[in-house]
Structure formats: C-alpha cells, structure tokens
C-alpha cells in the first residue's frame, strides 16, 4: 500500500489533536484514501510532552529544522504558530520539495503571497483548511463547492475565543477577564490572546477568505480591525432590548468602489441563525450570485475539531501529491496569474447601519436637536430607545438605530451631536448588519 510520511512541527493543542485523530481513525482514513498516513517524526521544544503523547512510537526531536530537512518526510505539518520561525520552516520545507499543511492563519495572512509563490514554483501543495474557522470546511466550500459563483460577500463569526467570551458575558453576566482565562484553559485562545480579543485573529482569517472569495492577493495590512475589549455590557443589553445580538463579525464584501475588509463588534438581528451561534462555535455566511446565501456552522477552535481539518488536508495531499500542479485546486482557488489587485475600501467609505448610544441631560428639546442633525445628513432613524434617568440622576441614555449611510457621514454627524451642550461625553457607535440579502 502507498504511504504518506508526515513530519509534525508542534504537538500542542492542535498537533496533539492531529496525532490522536490520525492514529485513532487510521483504518477509516486508509479506507477512504487508499494511503497509509503515518507520522514519522515530531518536533516540539517540549520533548517530554511530545514523547508522552506519541508513547515512544515516533522519532521525537526539539529541532524543527531536523524534520523539515528529513529526506524521509513527504509532508510537513506546521502547528507551532507565530510568523517568524514558522515562515522560515515553511519556506525551507517548500525548498526541500515537501508539501505543507498548516493551521497558521497569522502566517498565511501576512506572508501567504510569498509562500504560495514559492510553492507554485516548486510544485508542492500548501493546504490550510484548519487556518480558517477550525473544523468547518470553509476553504473547501469557497474554493470548490461554490466555484461556479461570483462571490458577493462573506461574513462570519470566525474567532472562537471572543464568541465564547461574548456568550458567557451575555448569558452569565461574567466579567471579561474571567472568561478569557477559561477560553485559554480550554485551548481556544492564541498564544498571545490579544490577537483574539483585538480582532486580529479574525482579521487574519477574513483576509484569507477575501483572497479566495474575490481572487485577489492577501491584504491583511489594509484590514480594518476592532476587537471586543471596549465593548460594554450596557450596549449588549440595549441591543437585546431592540432585538439584536452583538457578535464579533468579519465582513468582506465586493462593491463597485472596492473591497470591504473589516472586523468589528456588530449588531445582528436575533432572528438570524448567526446571531444564535454561541460559545466557541463559528459560523460563516457566504453569498454567491447563483446559490444565494449559504451558511457553514461548526467548532471553530479546539484540539480535535481543528485536527479534523488538518487531517482532511493530509488526505488531500495523499490523493493529490502525484497529480500535476494543473490538476490540483489552486492555492487561492484561482489560477496563478489570475489574481486581481482589487483596492480595499477605507472604513470611512464603508456603508453601514449604526447603533448609537448617547447620554443626554434630561431637558426638553434634546432629542429634537439630535434628530435634526441626523435628518440634515439624510440619516434616517429606524428605531429609538429613550431611557428614564435613574433615581437621583439628571442624565439618561438615548439609543438610536439608523438606516444605512456612509461611515464618514455618520462620524461627522456624531461629532455634531457630541458638540450639543446637552450631550454628555462620547457617543458610542456600533455597526449593524442585516445579513439577509
Ligand atoms: N488552538 C486552536 O483551537 C487552533 C485552531 C486553529 C488554528 N490554530 C493554530 O494552530 C497553531 C498551533 O496552535 P496551538 O493552539 O496548537 O498552540 P500550542 O501552543 O498548543 O502548540 C504549539 C506547540 O508548538 C511547540 N513549539 C513552540 N515553539 C517551538 C519551536 N521553536 N520548536 C518546536 N516546537 C515548538 C510548543 O511546545 C507547543 O507544543 C497556531 O498557528 C494557531 O493559530 C489553533
Ligand atoms: N484562537 C482561535 C483559534 C482558532 O483559530 C480562536 O479562538 O478562534
Ligand atoms: Na476550516
């Protein structure tokens, strides 16, 4: 029987899950591929941990380059993370003519253009299903299943850690810091959890999806990224009163003027399926011109769900390594040389509906002043909440949901509202998405 020899770099959460799934389901995987996929060498700086997991059945080293340079290894699985060492390792593996499987979205979003060019020149596979939305086969769906469509937009909850935090905060009223610790214990968070909570990890994944959806190079440096650290319980509560849930959403959309590429907390109508995706689960909505909206849901993080995608990629390598480069699905789903250098829209040019919360002195005429500013800017109001001041207070919250306008118009309106003498402090602004059409 044919065999595929795997060199594993990093046997932590995802690497451990990958080893377990490959071992436990070996017979099923071989029934499907006709190939025996075996880990022949593991590199991890924590040698004892690597030995404990592999039970002495596999050669273990603390030198990742030993695996990358091992002539016996056909495919290198990079599960160390980061983008400095991992970039060197992946480029060296490619130079050595080895196929690569990685779960590293940070690496691909920042250096993917260079890595894919190197792989193309060498004729090797670089597979990365686990890098976006963990166990959900979204890369396969975008590159293959939806290949007949002109993709119009992609929007998703693509960070398990922040969705877990938002869910626990909403359902249990827990504090942000306590929930983050729990997400770290469960193995969802990045080595540096700032990547999760500031929306950077979601922007990495969105960058990869936008490149595949629209056939363009990775443009992570132009993504607009806003995390959940400034999000307040008050706004989660008011949004609910108005029939919305707040989710950290990644949105990429093709417009006449350019491509939107943005990650931010977003109000979504609670009747949408995506609004009810909770815990570390992820969901991605893809709108194609032929198929309409489609929804993909599943575990976005964690050892075995992510391993499910790593192993599926290994199975693709097992099937396709003997095929010519032309017979394989291109790295970004479009032929090399067919990528368009589409411009990314600055956030000020993006069109959106908005949630505004203002704090106002409880005096007559305040609301009239605010609505006049909005009307003068052609911003229509969709809904409003006016709260009574709490006991002994003279100020109260006003919440306004607007119809769609361009962000720079909204920001100019907000500046005028903040200048009104009766308005106290800054206006809170959150974006809203219907996700329907
Ligand atoms: N955890 C998840 O749910 C998840 C999901 C999807 C993608 N990812 C990605 O998968 C990758 C791995 O994540 P993880 O959660 O498994 O991380 P982890 O920290 O659990 O595992 C990383 C492993 O690499 C080892 N390592 C670190 N530096 C090394 C070096 N120089 N040489 C050899 N070994 C080294 C560590 O000892 C550790 O065992 C990252 O790119 C991450 O973004 C993680
Ligand atoms: N830290 C990531 C892991 C999965 O990519 C998350 O929470 O979604
Ligand atoms: Na995936």
TrEMBL record:
Pfam family, one: Homoserine_dh
Assigned EC number: 1.1.1.3
A biological-process GO annotation: threonine biosynthetic process
A single GO molecular function term of this UniProt record: NADP binding
EC class name: oxidoreductase
Domain ACT: 355-432
Residues bound to NADPH: 105
Binding, L-homoserine: 190
Keywords: Amino-acid biosynthesis, Methionine biosynthesis, NADP, Oxidoreductase, Threonine biosynthesis
Active site: 205 (proton donor)
InterPro entries linked: ACT-like_dom_sf (IPR045865), ACT_dom (IPR002912), Asp/hSer_DH_NAD-bd (IPR005106), HDH (IPR016204), HDH_cat (IPR001342), HDH_CS (IPR019811), NAD(P)-bd_dom_sf (IPR036291)
Binding positions for NADP(+) per the UniProt entry: 9-16
Pathway(s) of this molecule: Amino-acid biosynthesis; L-methionine biosynthesis via de novo pathway; L-homoserine from L-aspartate: step 3/3; Amino-acid biosynthesis; L-threonine biosynthesis; L-threonine from L-aspartate: step 3/5
UniProt similarity note: Belongs to the homoserine dehydrogenase family.
Stated name of the protein: Homoserine dehydrogenase
Species of origin: Methylotenera versatilis (strain 301)
